[in-house]
């Protein structure tokens, strides 16, 4: 029996994050009630698996059910490409 691998693709919305205010789902990064990043460079996003630190340059993806997750820039570039409105590639 041969093994088969399938990939189900989905269109996502994504915003590259650099600072607070770039994406509404990203909040200031706090630990133990105090900011863990005194310079305000990192953020925090709640995902389906728990919270994740967001670094400047990370992409914040929004899935089909409104869930969010961070993606490192190199992984984003290797995995996704922009789709023009109407579903056509650039």
TrEMBL record:
- Domain of life per record: Bacteria
What is the name of this protein?
Uncharacterized protein
The organism named in the record is Brevundimonas diminuta
Q: What is the lineage of its organism?
A: Bacteria, Pseudomonadati, Pseudomonadota, Alphaproteobacteria, Caulobacterales
